[in-house]
Amino acid sequence: MEPLRQTIREVGADIAIVDAATGAAFVGADMITPKILGSICGLLGCLALLLSLTGLYGVTSQMVASRTREFGVRIAIGGEYRHLLTMVLSEALHPVVGGLAAGLFLGVIVRLVLRGPVARVAPAIDPLVLVAVPIPFVLSALIACYFPARRAAKTDPGVTLRDL
User: Rounded CA gap, 124 and 117, in Å?
Assistant: First the structure.
């Protein structure tokens, strides 16, 4: 900034320099509120994801606990570890996939509705977003459901059959 001030002094000594900064500094000052709001929204989104994964883990654990006999009988008659694992994971992930499909559908609808009044929203539908957004949700839901599913697949058939 000092070379700029020196040049202005050379051109006109009577020009008062009140505030001199780069364009990025001026724009950065105006963007502080959206940055803070974006950070708060991101934090709340992470908290919501954590709470939903905790709930999904709890529901899957309860489902596994209530079906322990079934899993023991399946293993006793020759069920394989991977089949039980995939069965429990697929049952636990059905609500996640349904929720993602509904959310993406509603997001596209809202985006198309806002396209008219808000000219800065472009493009109307971004295929990259439609593919990239669900990936972290599905991966984190898989991790939340994996541990109860593994517990179900490792059910001891001897203990289960003895309790019948």
Answer: 12
What are 74-98's pLDDT values in tens digits? 888 888 889 999 999 999 999 999 9
Maximum CA pair distance of the chain?
98
The token pair at 47 is: 């908290």
Q: Cα–Cα distance between 64 and 126 in angstroms, integer? A: 39
Domain positions in the chain: 52-163
Instruction: Indicate the SS3 state at residue 42.
Output: helix
For residues 67 and 92, the answer to whether their CB atoms sit within 8 Å is no
Give pTM, 2 decimals.
0.70
Cis peptide before 123 (omega within 30 of 0): yes
Compute CA distances 75 → 10, 78, 109, 151, whole Å: 89, 5, 46, 13
Return the closest-CA partner of residue 160 out of 49, 42, 77, 48: 77
Whether 151 and 63 have beta carbons less than 8 Å apart is answered as: no
Cα gap 97→95, rounded to integer Å: 6
C-alpha span between 120 and 147 (Å, rounded): 44
Neighbours of 71 (CB within 10 A): 22
